[in-house]
Amino acid sequence: MKLLRYGPAGQEKPGLLDSSGTIRDLSGVIPDLAGVALSAAGLAQIAALDPASLPAVTGTPRLGPCVTGMKNFICIGLNYADHAAETGAAIPKEPIVFLKSLGAVCGPNDDVMIPKDSVKTDWEVELAIIIGSTAKCVPEETAMEHVAGYAVCNDVSEREWQIERGGTWDKGKGCDTFGPLGPWLVTKDEVADPQDLSMTLDIDGARMQDGSTRTMIFGVRHLVSYVSHFITLHPGDVISTGTPPGVGLGQKPPVFLKPGQTIRLSIQGLGEQVQRTVAYA
Q1: How is the chain classified by DSSP, letter by letter?
Q2: Mean pLDDT per 10-residue section of the chain, whose length is 281 residues
Q3: pTM of the entire predicted model
């Protein structure tokens, strides 16, 4: 299934994308795409519905983040061998884990705001894992039981603040609008192999990233298990799994975002995001 949330920011309703591309309203079935609705039983209840029996949503409503109610927005750094190479970094021996502020979460096509005084705002197309049930110290063998599905994430980053301002990466990762998520939560049964998905990102029509999850250093199963030994994962939590090469920091010379640009990113089978960059307001 492709599940989504639609409507004005802060007033989103849950929905389902049917086979014809029509949004079907799920608000009469579940309160939102959160909590128990993301569990195996909750997803099975939705899957058993006849989409044609649900109200059709007319027009082209705004899409919000595809899940809500998350407690953790976790990111993995330098998790693609070819991206580590372009940055000159060594291959990590263990996953590099950092947290992105929940205030960064926004809809997949919402504007990305360049922060005040930023000169190095960058882009990163990433595969996001959506957690469906509580996971704490789970082994790799059962890690996938806790995954509801996947989504596209743009891990927008301010590189000067991330790298040059001291301390942890978090200050360059958690700015408002730095976490577009969606358009859909694609349930895991629709993704035959999350380690074999093509992914691209364009800036103003120019291809910048063209990679595949095949070059991930630590795969989905390992990451869910690994993170759960440090942070209890809850339904709706997101693990964004790193980016392939082609980020602005990796260009020669480096290139960064400025207001008035269009970011278009997609992952095979998971949909597309399109964002416009705007100046700080």
Answers
A1: -EEEEESSTT--EEEEE-TTS-EEE-TTT-SSSSGGGGSHHHHHHHHTS-GGGSPBPPS-PPB--S----S-EEEEES-BHHHHHHHTPPPPSS-EEEE--GGGEE-TTSPEEPPTT-S-EE--EEEEEEE-S-BSS--HHHHGGGEEEEEEEE--EEHIIIIISSS-GGGGT-STT-EEB-S-EEEGGG-S-TTS-EEEEEETTEEEEEEEGGGBSS-HHHHHHHHHTTS-B-TT-EEE----S--GGGSSS-----TT-EEEEEETTTEEEEEEEE---
A2: 98 97 97 97 97 96 98 96 80 94 98 97 98 98 98 97 89 97 98 97 98 96 98 98 95 96 98 98 88
A3: 0.96
